[in-house]
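quick one if you have a minute, typing this from the bus. below you get a single protein, a line of residues and a line of whole numbers that encode the local backbone shape. could you go over both lines and see whether the tokens make sense for that sequence. anything you notice is useful, everything is just below.
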Amino acid sequence: MIGDKIANARKEINMSQAQLARLLFISPQAVGKWERGESIPDLITFNRLAEILQVDLNYFSENFSSGNDNTVSKMSFDDASETSVKSETDILDTKERPLLTNFNGNNLTGSDFAGITAHNRKFNGTALRGSDFAGADMTGSTFSSSDIRDANFNEANLTDCMLSTVDLTNACFLKTILQRTEFNKSVLIGARFTDTNFVNAKLIMLDLRQTSFENCTFSGVDFEYSDLRGLRLDGLSFTDVKFQKAALNDTSFHGAILRNVSFRPTYALTNKYYRAIKTIQFSGAQMDKLTYAALKGMEADLSGVTII
């Protein structure tokens, strides 16, 4: 029954199994198993499904009925001309009032948002692959469960933005403003951050092993439960940064500047964590006395390090 409901809601918005799988970061085969009744999604995935398919969570329950037992609001995933649904009177009460705040579930592949001012917009379950946000002011906007591969965020303002469970493969961030920006459980394979300052940002549960950081600074940044194994952070600047429960095996900080940087896990140190710390490369780095002392206490290799 649940499989039928997923299939019906998916077809109502003309979305393929592959498109749905991509937005959920799972395989199309997993979607096929749901629809054939061979397995069911977990609770968190149900929430994301409801968001992407634009249905109420009750839609998946046995006794729910909504007229024709399909989606609550119908929208074509492949029709970019129907820009969005104005639910909850989604017009900003400001002097500009030009745009809807809600772009959820739309196909906006390759859209041109360059240079716009659009605060507090919602892009949830939205196809944005190859879209151009260069120079745009997207302060306070939310991107969730969306396909944003190959997007251009060069010189964009992403202050207070949330990017959660999105696919940012090969996206580019040149001189992007990332103040209090949060990247959460997202794909950043091939993403490039260049001449970018991270200020009080959060990078949570990310695989950063194939992400590029060039001439970037990190101030007040938290790396939580993220995978940085083998990542080269050479020559970068870190101030008031925390690496909490992060995988740091063979991470390179050659020539980097570290001030008040914490490499301690949230809980007690383990032998495994000690071994990981010993593989971090700090040669040529500069660090303050407290950071140096903390790393020394964890038996890090600090040969070639300069205390500042």
Notes: Residues 2-60 form a domain with the 434 Repressor (Amino-terminal Domain) fold (CATH 1.10.260.40). Residues 66-99 have pLDDT under 50 and may be disordered.
